[in-house]
Design brief:
This protein is 42% helix and 13% strand. It has an eleven-stranded mixed beta sheet. It starts with 18 loop residues before the first strand and ends with a helix. The chain has 373 residues and is an alpha/beta fold. The longest helix is centred in the middle third of the chain and has 23 residues.
Length: 373
């Protein structure tokens, strides 16, 4: 374990932290087949959440994205409310622009929660794996019953309550479902999701073969052509990875190994306050060597005073060394890369057309507003 500085409050002022993923619980009412979060019953204390949010918002940079997930964060709605109120108040004090995004499975959401999210302008990302047979193949309750029917009951009230620009589908794609990608994307659009984050499932239980990878690419290419055609009809659909590329070019920079400091957009804080650069370490028993600190105690000595400089050798090697561990290997790396390449190509095409077309210019402006991750 790296040496941790024994301080109660860490400021992070030397670091530009753009986004923070806050895992407030490992508890969940589902038992999804491919989920990497073991249900250990850990839940973040509010005092830990306050320190995490303070550390985040006191870092340099004006644009901030707070992503709250679990487990299922709506199991602890009271805690979630307090975190959101505190984050909004602190962001205002710090004169920061803050986007808050909540990841949920959508099965226990209710009108009170939706009214609160609407009032506080929280963005909602709902996990759904397409049509019933695809969703229920993986996203199940502890009794093995599929969760699709329960989610489907809630989708109309979610869509009616949350502005379309603040609502996204977190669309998990397993290898067997790859050849149905286009069909499932249209299904999600029909449900009312204009924004979709395509997440190829990365799990030891989901190994992608060559034909499945090719099917994924073919189906995604078909959907992007559909998106392009609909822009001309003034009907806008969005991919979150393309939106990210429109906003700041981080997707293409990542593929070119021009990633910024991992503090900038890969920072994770787990329920006990532990800090890392990967969600996959949330409760793994062998995660200790890869923790970079704890918001309740301090950062590891290596990171406490560091400040990113692209030309510094230590900065150039930091991310590569951190991700070099075996746990960092992606089970769906080729598929994720394909998704990103298609998103970049689409974003560049729209950008070129926006220079001479008002409708493409409007699409690009809308896309930049729709950042969920």
């Amino acid at each position: 374990m790296p040496k941790i500085n024994a301080v109660k409050i860490i400021s992070g002022r030397r670091k530009n932290i753009h986004s923070l993923r806050l895992a407030i619980t490992t508890e969940c009412n589902l038992r999804c087949v491919y989920c990497f979060v073991r249900k250990t019953g850990k839940t973040m204390r509010y005092s830990t959440a306050r320190k995490a949010v303070s550390f985040f918002l006191k870092s340099s940079g004006k644009q901030k994205l707070l992503i709250i997930y679990g487990g299922e964060p709506l199991l602890y709605f009271g805690l979630l409310r307090k975190i959101i109120f505190y984050a909004r108040k602190t962001a205002k004090q710090q004169k920061k622009s803050l986007v808050i995004s909540i990841g949920t499975n959508g099965t226990i959401i209710n009108k009170e929660q939706l009214d609160f999210f609407k009032k506080t302008q929280v963005r909602l990302a709902v996990s759904i794996d397409g049509e019933k047979r695809f969703h229920d193949a993986s996203r199940i309750f502890p009794d093995k019953e599929g969760s699709f029917n329960q989610l489907l009951k809630n989708i109309p009230i979610i869509v009616s309550a949350i502005k379309k620009e603040n609502l996204s589908a977190l669309f998990g794609v397993t290898p067997p479902a790859a050849r149905f990608l286009y069909k499932n994307l249209l299904f999600l659009n029909a449900l009312g999701f204009e924004n979709i984050n395509i997440e190829p499932v990365q799990s030891v239980n989901c190994v992608w073969n060559l034909s499945q990878k090719r099917a994924f690419q073919s189906q995604l290419s078909r959907y992007i052509k559909y998106m392009h055609k609909n822009i001309l009809k003034n009907a806008f659909y969005f991919l979150n990875t393309a939106n990210r590329e429109f906003k700041d070019g981080l997707i293409s920079r990542g593929l070119k190994n021009q990633l910024l400091c991992p503090f900038f957009w890969s920072l994770e804080i787990y329920p006990d306050g532990e800090m890392a650069f990967s969600p996959f370490l949330i409760n793994e028993p062998e995660n200790t060597p890869y923790l970079i600190g704890n918001v309740n105690h301090g950062l590891a000595a290596r990171y406490n005073e560091c400040e990113y400089r692209a030309q510094k050798t230590i900065c150039q090697n930091c991310w590569t060394e951190y991700r070099g561990a075996r746990w960092g290997a992606s089970y769906a790396g080729d598929v994720v890369t394909a998704r990103d390449i298609f998103s970049i190509a689409f974003a560049r095409m729209v950008k070129r057309k926006s220079e001479r077309s008002k409708i493409f210019a409007r699409y690009m402006r809308e896309a930049k507003k729709r950042i969920f991750e």
